[in-house]
Amino acid sequence: MSKLNKNRRRKRWVIVITIWTFFIALIVGFFAHYSLNEINSLFLSFLILFIVVFLGIIFDLVGTAAAAADIAPLNAKAARRVVGARKGVQLAKNAEKVSNFCNDVAGDISGIVSGTLAAIIVYKLIVSIPHSQADFYMNILLTALVAAVTVGGKAWGKVVAINYSTEVLLMVGYILTRIEKPFDWFRKDSNSPG
Predict the structure, then answer these.
(1) Which among 28, 81, 82, 96 is least surrounded, fewest beta carbons within 10 Å?
(2) How far apart (Å, rounded) are the C-alpha atoms in residues 177 and 190?
(3) pLDDT (tens digit, 9 = 90+) per residue, 32-45?
(4) Cβ of 6: how many Cβ atoms within 10 Å?
(5) Burial 64-80 (b: 16+ CB within 10 A, else e)
(6) Which of 146, 177, 165 is nearest to 74 (CA)?
């Protein structure tokens, strides 16, 4: 493939991923914000917040694993028909895009949404526990907690991703293969002639 074609494909990828990011952030932000406003339980509000943070950590782990992966062991497992290995090879071969999507798109959306959710939770706390200085301290404390869990979780995820990149991509490949399995009939029908 020529350098000009590679540059065109990269530019196209940048435009596509920018548009996708906008719509994914819009949808995730809407549902997270709506569900948090409808939930009166502080426990469930915190649970939603930490699920969003956890998803950001997991996506970061997968993106780092794709970037760090050695493709040879994945090819060997694919040759032995290990379930998920072919998808793992695809993830490793497309490490630039996988890493961009997982680390940047999912990670940044998770960070923005978790910040918004933290602000909503602080507002709920202020309404339920009125005090002149409470909002200031709760806001700082919750922001610091979310930042610490996010950074600590991503640091742990990077260690796992770098040391066990093959295993991570095999697991993700296995999950993707199982998710696609029910839709195999659709791909076969769409590829059939006439």
Answers:
(1) 81
(2) 19
(3) 777 777 777 778 88
(4) 10
(5) bbbbbbebebbbebbee
(6) 165
Task: Write the Ramachandran bin of 76: left for phi over 0, alpha for psi from -120 to 50, otherwise beta.
Answer: alpha
Residue type, 168: V
Model pLDDT, residue 154: 92
Residue linked to tokens 């995820």:
157
Q: Is-above-0.85 flag for pTM?
A: no
Report pLDDT digits (tens) over 125-175. Answer: 777 776 656 666 777 888 889 889 999 999 999 999 999 999 999 999 999
Report residue 91 as tokens. Answer: 């993830």
Q: Between vectors from CA 76 to CA 70 and to CA 100, what angle results, nearest 5°? A: 35
Q: Which residues contact 91 (CB under 8 A, 6 or more apart)?
A: 62, 66, 69, 98, 169, 172, 173
Q: How far apart are CA 24 and CA 39, in angstroms?
A: 22
Q: Which residue has the tokens 């009125």?
A: 130
Q: Are 175 and 85 in contact (CB under 8 A)?
A: no
* 93 Cβ neighbours under 8 A, 6+ residues apart: 71
SS3 label, residue 164: coil
